[in-house]
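Handout, page 2. Input:
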Amino acid sequence: MKNKAIIILLSLLTSVFVSTTHAATCESNAKDEKCAQISVQDKNGKAVADMVVYLAPLDGQKLIQSSDVVTVAQQNKAFTPYITVSQIKKTVHFVNQDDITHHIYSADSDNKFAFKIRAGDEHLVENFTKEAEIAMACNIHDWMSGYLLVIDTPYFAKTNEKGEAFFAIKELGNYNVVVWHPQLPTEQHRLFQKQNIIENTQLSFTLPKDLENIPTQENSDGFDFDSDY
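Output:
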């Protein structure tokens, strides 16, 4: 009886963080696709925007290579967007939209890069062959910080203002549905749930803790190197 009570309690605790329903409102655009609608909310039930959601295949599904261009801009002395997501083997375009030079570098040992990029220039990085969570910074403007998440799936998105992300899935089967944010105070900054996607499906995640604050992306001393750096 005691063991049964423990099992019931664990089941209730798990349901607080992840819940699943089959969605009548989640419609795909083609007959051979199924739609997965992923929702993210905080512990008070408020929608959380700009959370990365991605679907990692678990059944050996052969997924297409995304044709989207991946761009990380430097604008107003900040990385724009703060979080960029790329499929592996993609070229990432770093575009300096400021009127000054930046010196961009990564803090990831397996995906090191460092380069100067002058005003209006573009720099391409092509060596992303492994999944990685890459922190980026600028050697000149030390308040600048951003993240590049490299994953082995074309199924990724950021949640909208309603905390929702939608995916049209052709390769049906089991997926690991992952919610990620660099300020999410969980192991590897992730929440995940295995889901067999064989029909239109909704999956809801509740964050166990509030997100930590994103570092302030602005200068504190008013000094900049000029474009001749």
